[in-house]
Design brief:
The complex is a heterodimer.
Chain A (H helix, E strand, L loop, with lengths): L1 H6 L2 H11 L5 H19 L3 H26 L7 H18 L5 H26 L4 H21 L1 H4 L5 E2 L11 E5 L2 E4 H25 L1 H11 L1 H6 L4 H27 L1 E2 L1 H4 L2 H14 L6 H15 L1 H10 L4 H8 L1 H15 L3 H20 L1
Antiparallel strand pairs in A: 1-4, 2-3
Helix pairs in contact in A: 3-9, 4-9, 4-12, 4-14, 4-15, 5-6, 5-12, 6-7, 6-12, 9-12, 10-12, 14-15, 14-19, 16-17
Chain B lengths: L1 H7 L4 H20 L7 H32 L6 H21 L8 H29 L8 H23 L4 E2 L9 E4 L2 E4 H23 L1 H11 L1 H6 L4 H27 L1 E2 L3 H16 L4 H21 L7 H12 L9
Antiparallel strand pairs in B: 1-4, 2-3
Classes of the chains: A mainly alpha, B mainly alpha.
Amino acid sequence: MDASNQTLTPVESQRLAFERGRYTRPTFLVQLALVAILIACPLMFQSFRVMDVVVKIMIFAVAVASYDIIIGYTGIISFAHGMFFGLGAYAVGLVAYYSGSPHYYHILLGLLLAVAMAMVLAVVIAFFSLRVKAIFFAMMTLAVAEFAHILGYQWSSLTMGEDGVSFKMPGIMNVNWADGTILGIPLNGRLVTYYVILVISVLLFIGIVRFVRSPVGRVLKSIRDNEQRATALGYRIFRYRMLSTVFGSTIAAICGGLFAMWLNYVNPDTVLGIPLMLNILLMVIVGGLGTIYGGIVGAAFINIAETWLPDLQKVASKLFPGNEVMQRLTERWVLYFGILYVLVVLFFPKGVMGSLRDMATRRKAQAMRRD
Amino acid sequence: MTSQTASLAGGEKPALDMKQVAFWVVAGGIWLLPLIWIDPTIYMVLTVAGVAMGMLLFLTAVGLTIIFGLMDVLNLAHGAFFAWGAYVGFTILGALNGLGWVETGTLAQSILSVAISLAVALVVGGLWGLVVERLIISKIYGDHLKQILITVGASMIMAEIIKVIWGPNQEVMLVPAAFTGSYDIADVVINKFRVAAIVVGAAVYTGVMAVLLKTKLGIIIRAGVENREVVQALGYNITRIFTGVFAAGAALAAVGGSMWGIFREQINPAMGEENLIFALIVVIIGGMGSVTGSFLSAMMVGLAFNYVAFLMPKLALGVNILIMAIILLIRPWGLLGKE
């Protein structure tokens, strides 16, 4: 025992300890429980609205986590994440639409196309704007994203403009497909699509976690924390930043594809607009920058709020009949998102997961002092 | 650095001049290039329209570039100030129309009504700038990430307040009587309000440059851009100057919004967002923090947009992005930016 410890470096022994406890630590159990809940969700609640929210939470949790790689782990602000999301959605939607009656491989083709286009576009954007200052990237991506939004509207020979593209899913993923019941649950296209999205999102999420824990992820963190030192250590920061944005953007495109698969419909405002981007940004802040798992918290919070906040309006019109200002104030729930935004950044900058982690480390430190 | 060494060592100066001459020759050549395809009269019309549009773009972008240059803040709430200016102008023009000044009325009344609405927009924009800077931005200087996030939040709030007060729909902006219609000089048709836009834009450019170059405040601001700590050490209250500059930038954005609203004859709550993109492109091309750079790039974008819109209407919306890409390839820091 002693002899083996001597040959191990501190990092190695730490890693060994981590490996040993991997399947018994509480976070692993939480992860398992989460996946179990997601699997059981359609069985527990048979309402479409709940299922819809859960799917959106899954998709956006991955999208936000992939955004967190860029903004939280690499410290680059991109406003094009919504655009990549939309790119993926349009890729799947348009391939399915123009194929007439799509087969399964059409959906796969759409996703592959989304990945390829997102990669190329992300490399081009990075090449143009990441060379000078990271802040350039924010401005550049904002401009490009708005251009994509305009393109979605104007290029109507391809995208059908404002009307959007509605398409059908193939085979057992089609909304109209139904085949009896399983365990008392009606087995239909929605349910199949739900589980397809569940599997892909969980895989993507694991992929993201593996990415940030890999050596590359560590280099990214070091660049974020001290650019000069990372350069001095011999890392080519431009390449690493580029890799990070390309990886994150590509996953966003896949998320967009999943979103299109669920909605069977895409239009410029729902998948390409600035509001979508702002939502993703808000989710990542609420969840906590640089935590990855914060994406789940943020996505859950915002999606649940977005689904049930508009009900507030009905309550208000009942409570204050005829009071127009009151009604307008409740109608504008984006206003409260904006206020939440400012408050979170000012007073709660680490977000939910970041604060929880802080608490955990503090408690650990206290326990160690007591010993 | 290079310009310093060049001015110190006299021998290098001619080479630098040659470079500048070459630049202007190339720029002029590109400017005249569309003449190959466009009839000279139409070219003149498009040029005036382009200059007017450039002036309006400059009005939108100047505040952004000043705020970035001095305070190192990327202010994404800029579009919201812009939209507020437009809506305030809309209200004032509506009120003045009640007096019979706007849609009917003399030239003096028309000019006065525009001037009053611009002045009120200036004040309201400045006040908003004051509030946003004091309440929010002053808390997070030096942290780009937080600044960007928080100004996004601020712009969401401000845009939503617009919707609460004025409603979410598009409104028709009144155009004062004397500014409707157009002049006709030797077949060159010039929209009257475009002339007003050029005058206001030129006045703002001259004014901003005069303040920056000729006044003591301007010296302090320029020194602050170079080295914040030294200015502070010399006893100037940089915090107050920051607040003032931010408010001024916001006020200029509001004026730009007001002008833009009259120019387009319509306003909607989303206009701030759209114009923020334009302003960002102009600032990126011009070089962040450079007023003259923004002026040049605004002209470039305005002119190019009009020529291209005439020659290839489909491409017009992409021409800004195209120019930006080309400039960034040649000079990643923009036309007159540093580094």
